Amino acid sequence: MAHVARTLGLAAAAAAALTLTLSACSNQNANTAASAGAHGFAASWGTAGPGMPSLTIAPDGSFNGTDGCNSLIGKGTISGQTFHFGHFATTLMACPDVDTWLSRASTATISGTTLTVKDADGTRIGTLDAR
């Protein structure tokens, strides 16, 4: 009987340790998600359609989209409440009657459901609403 109680005690301790380990992992994932969610950059922005700028930013900072004519692809970083586009690749097609402002993106911030994009001089060049 003492052997059964000891075995049950060890099983209960192992189960408790496993529960604590899983709980810690779950809390770490929740904290990571909450941190990323606080920035909110990982989303689709703009209006998908011919001549319309749109951008999708992944949780790891990679992004792709279009300035309404040219395709954009790259990987940015988040610093505080600012997304930094860094270097990115873009096609260079001639686009009559399309404002290709998004291809000059340097940084972005969020206010509500709007992504405000600035150029390298810090001048606001456009906005994209969340989709």
TrEMBL record:
Pfam families: META. Residues 51-125 form the DUF306 domain. Gene3D superfamilies: 2.40.128.270. Keywords: Signal. Residues 1-24 form the signal peptide. The keyword Signal applies. InterPro entries: DUF306_Meta_HslJ, HslJ-like_sf. This is META domain-containing protein.
